Amino acid sequence: MEVGYNLNHIRQFQGIVLGRPGSGKTLVARWMADRLCEKYGARNVNAVSCSADLGTLLSGVRGTLVNFLFLDDLTLSDTKKADISRYFRIRHVIEEATGRKDGIVITLLGLHRFYGCDPSIRTNFDFLLFRSAPTNKFDKNFTEGYLGKTQIKLLSAMELDRMKKPALFNTTFAWLKGEGAGFIHTPAPEYNMLYDMTQSISNREPTKDELYRYLLWKQGYVDDPIDESVKYLK
Questions:
Q1: What is the predicted pLDDT for the residue at 115?
Q2: Dihedral, 194, 196, 200, 201 alpha carbons, nearest 10
Q3: CA dist., res. 198 & res. 196, Å (int)
Q4: Looking at residue 133, which CATH number applies to its domain?
Q5: pLDDT of amino acid 77
Q6: How much is the pTM?
Q7: Residue 209: inside a domain
Q8: Number of structural domains, the chain?
């Protein structure tokens, strides 16, 4: 029996990381990329990021087993409706772009506040990560529906404790659909496996992270088109 839509087996997970500027949202994204590379192997993970432009981010999908896409600061971004539609059907976008019909795609969108993004995005997600407690009235009321007042108080207390205990900067509050909420340990990885799609690579020395990725490429663990720094170093 024929159906009027395409089916594939790519598992799709969409998340939001909330935090004030400088609170460590990108650190969490790098931690996630590092854990995915550790679990599935660096050659099987495409981990990319960009700032504000959802359309550019979605163009970064590859035919790898795992795609991890991080958008830094979607707050007040003028996001096109067509890009929002592609965001919600990202598993089909991957198949259309690469032909792959299985695997995992994880999207993580960074926000300074919930109120500053499209309602369809802020109300449809599989997990929430908090680097700072919500401050405005809308965000507090919105967040209480998922965490409850007690958890928000714990999150606020953690922010104050960070001033006295810098090690707590590696702690993130997480809410997972169907699993509940709690604190998780998100230390900064030794190497950054999250590639910045907007990074300029001309007229400068390669960074330590780029050198490491170059070695991965030489060993066959990173595909050449994924990382522009590889082209620069060749």
A1: 83
A2: 20
A3: 6
A4: 3.40.50
A5: 82
A6: 0.82
A7: no
A8: 1
